[in-house]
Write a structure and sequence with these properties.
alpha+beta; two-stranded antiparallel sheet; 4 strands; single chain
Length: about 90
């Protein structure tokens, strides 16, 4: 299976699913967040994510003409490839 480079990757999945299947996806996401590793696969494409540290969480709900939309958005920063980039320092002379 092809594992793509982790930089600048977008994976989109849209489908109609029964609520029970969506609940299984959400449980898998919750388990992956707790474990610090999420693997997304679509055909030959695979992306591995590593949520760490503080994560942002956004939830939106909208009802319009009897159509309901619930959006969840999670975000975090990937650790820098150069650990010195993450250092913060204050120097007084």
């Amino acid at each position: 299976m092809e594992t793509t480079d982790q930089k600048d990757i977008e994976m989109l999945h849209e489908a109609m699913q029964e609520p029970a299947q969506l609940a299984r996806y959400l449980r898998a996401i919750a388990d992956g967040l707790e474990a610090g590793q999420l693997r997304l696969r679509s055909g030959a494409r695979e992306v591995e994510l590593h949520p760490r540290g503080l994560c942002s969480f956004e939830l939106r709900s909208r009802t319009e003409r009897q159509r309901v939309k619930l959006q969840l958005q999670l975000g975090w920063r990937e650790p820098s490839e150069n650990p010195k980039d993450d250092l913060f320092e204050i120097v007084a002379r």
